[in-house]
Write a structure and sequence with these properties.
about 450 residues, Glutamate Dehydrogenase, Chain A, domain 3, Rossmann fold, 3 domains, five-stranded mixed beta sheet
């Protein structure tokens, strides 16, 4: 570790020591940058690291709303505008009780590098609220009604609208923020500013959404895995794959894997893991999507389709694993899980979530020299397609499914190749963590140097 990195980490910890997820993300990036910092002294001279770890703007606000019983509820809303050196802030909104300032700063920091890797002109941001649409505030065991979610979203946007815009900050969906929530948020923004503009991505097709957007993160994760395997002269056909999660990312990753001839044996949610030893079928996957996206239920309801293991992640349930795709949430796969996967034959881990592997798991994968892609690279398909949606909105065009999918494939190949080449250039061939960090960092850093101290 260089003295520059050591100093910045120490200063960052002093300011943000109570935000473990943010510090984990900062350390993961900064500890890989020594090679590029040594050959580019202008980065230290211009205090690039110090500026990168500090958000350009942090917005915190209250969100009052009225539930179906007429009771006034109050949640906290956030928007972290991390870095706009290469384009308007871009990143999702997350509605979940785990949302806090540290989690959103980690996500916004990761988003800066992820967006840089896409080759599109997008800065990094993130936002959300501790509101939980899955739990009714007045009826135990029930979810918030559509009307309650609408009232919350309208109140949330009534504050957020003044901080965003198509050339300033373009939010999207994230955990628990899907088509329903984006529709309510977009409607309120349009109502307030009296303007139809592409201020949000992930919109419905009738009002400016893009084909492939729901599928993009999951598809992109698998396209990246395809590119990693191609370097070794291999493919996904016949591979046994474990996946965590059962939302859009996990479901569409499973769909693409099946299309490519792989066998998917797990999906999961907070209630547990549904293990199907003989492999999920397209029919069962469709049932999962219906359950999660329409009924908003839990996988335990499909227990008869396989073996449901309550309260367990999918990493230690299969006897044989060729590939693992963590697609749920941060730090869901730890060192013990990594050891199990490696012992049972895992040769590829493609992160579909943001920072889902703990530092000891990452160390195990890198030490074993398997194919391992960090989320900032292999998870970038979603935001890449959001960028394509922004382009379509600006031009008042709607591209076909085939056009968007072809552009997504091209972007994921470019991300893979940039990460692979950056790692090789600095003597770490095959290390996609180092390659992705250096490639993403360099583009943003050069833009910041060119723009002066701002």
């Amino acid at each position: 570790m260089s003295k520059y990195v050591e100093r910045v980490l120490k200063e960052t910890a002093a300011r943000n020591g109570n935000e473990p997820e943010f510090m984990q993300a900062v350390e993961e990036v900064l500890l890989t940058l020594d090679p590029v910092l040594k050959t580019n002294p202008q980065y230290e001279k211009n205090a690039i690291l110090e500026r990168m770890v500090e958000p350009e703007r942090v917005i915190i606000f209250r969100v009052p709303w009225v539930d179906d019983k007429g009771v006034v509820r109050v949640n906290r809303g956030y928007r972290i505008q991390m870095n706009s050196a290469i384009g308007p802030y871009k990143g999702g909104l997350r509605f979940d009780p785990t949302v806090n300032l540290g989690v959103l700063k980690f996500l916004a920091f990761e988003q800066v590098f992820k967006n840089s890797l896409t080759t599109l002109p997008m800065g990094g941001g993130k936002g959300g609220s501790d509101f939980n649409p899955k739990v009714s505030p007045h009826t135990p065991g029930k979810r918030c009604s559509d009307a309650e979610v609408m009232r919350f979203c309208q109140s949330f946007m009534t504050e957020l609208y003044r901080h965003i815009g198509p050339d300033t900050d373009v939010p999207a969906g994230d955990m628990n923020v899907g088509g329903r929530e984006i529709g309510f948020l977009f409607g309120q923004y349009k109502r307030i500013v009296n303007e139809w503009t592409g201020v949000l991505t992930g919109k419905g097709l009738p009002f400016g959404g893009s084909l492939i957007r729901p599928e993009a993160t999951g598809y992109g994760d698998i396209y990246f895995a395809e590119n990693m395997l191609a370097v070794k002269g291999d493919t996904l056909e016949g591979k046994t794959c474990v996946i965590s999660g059962s939302g859009n990312v996990a479901s569409f990753a499973a769909e693409k894997l099946m299309q490519l001839g792989a066998k998917v044996v797990t999906l999961s949610d907070r209630s547990g893991t549904l293990y199907v030893k003989e492999g999920y079928t397209p029919k069962l996957l469709k049932q999962v999507m219906q359950l999660k996206n329409v009924k908003r239920g839990e996988l335990s309801e499909l227990a008869k389709a396989g073996k449901f293991i309550k309260g367990v992640n999918p990493w230690q349930v299969a006897d044989k694993v060729d590939c693992a795709f963590p697609c749920s949430r941060q730090n869901e796969l730890d060192g013990k899980d990594a050891a199990y996967l490696l012992k049972h034959g895992c040769k590829l881990v493609g992160e579909g979530a943001n920072m889902p592997s703990t530092p000891d798991a990452v160390e195990a994968f890198l030490g074993a020299k398997i194919l391992y892609s960090p989320g900032k690279a292999s998870n970038a398909g979603g935001v890449a397609t959001s960028g394509l949606e922004m382009s379509q909105n600006s031009e008042r065009l709607s591209w076909t499914r085939e056009e968007v999918d072809a552009k997504l494939k091209g972007i994921m190949k470019a991300i893979h190749d940039n990460a692979y080449e950056a790692a090789a250039k600095y003597g770490h061939k095959g290390n996609y963590v180092m390659g992705a960090n250096i490639a993403g960092f360099t583009k943003v850093a050069d833009a910041m140097v060119a723009q002066g101290v701002c």
